[in-house]
Design a protein that fits this description.
It is a single chain. The chain is mainly alpha-helical. Helix content is 60%, strand content 4%. A two-stranded antiparallel ribbon has the order 1-2. A hairpin with a 2-residue loop joins β1 and β2. The protein is globular and about 60 Å long. The structure holds zinc ion. Zinc ion binds next to α5 and α9.
Amino acid sequence: MNRRTIILSLLLFCSTLFFLTRDSLGWGSRAHPEIHRHAVRVLPAEMKAFFERHADTLAARSVEPDLHRRADSLEGYYHFIDIDRYGAYPFPELPRSYAEAVKKFGKATVDTNGTLPWRIAEFTRRLSDAMRRKDEREILYCASYLGHYVADAHVPLHTVENYDGQLTNQKGLHARWESRIPEMYGENFRYDVGAPYRIEDPLASAFGIVLESHLLADSVLALDMEAREGIPEHELMKMVERRGWTELRMSEKYYARYYKLLNGMVERQLAASARRVASYWYTAWVDAGRPDL
Ligand SMILES: [Zn+2]
């Protein structure tokens, strides 16, 4: 490494450290609202009118759980699960019941490893209760949050300990995959969102989504390495002025390569997110006895 490279790497490390603490992670501010809008679009007619009427609210509030982390330090733990801390895929060591998991590993361990699947199950119940009571305020709150958590479960790096590439010298990967790529290429994404379906067991389904995403995490990490290969250091990163700050960013050249190597993975995960969000909303509504909202 020459001196320039060392300085650049150090700057990149410091800037990612500053901008990308775990608390600032989640599908970006562009992807979450899009997911909610597409979820509304595919809902069955009997419940769609209510959701369509509040589509703007649901889109705007889709990012609220990420903002809520600033007010509540526990909120951050609801958005991920480092499931690889519990052994090997498909992680039979980890009881799917929260109470059983806590009994086995202790509450502190289970909570700090992330509680995303249990949060999804809890908010499905809460949404269903709110629908039964026809409590509009609570419905919008629960639907926004539930949608956010379900979408986060589709981000492969939300399911691994190496959530930002920090253990493999790939720091900042989290935002590159889930925020920058949708921002840069999202215009052309086709949302092929399938029809929503009733989820028999919301908790088992949440774990199913986590496992599915988890299987993609290796590719997310490996393809990032592949995308950097052969790009000289000075073409890999660039300084960008943003909101009065100077940030070091990966270059367009890197993103073009990484995006191509991912071969539609981000787009597929976004579409799958929208379908699952709609399915969870639909399930809550069916479980509430199909109320006229
Ligand atoms: Zn999140």
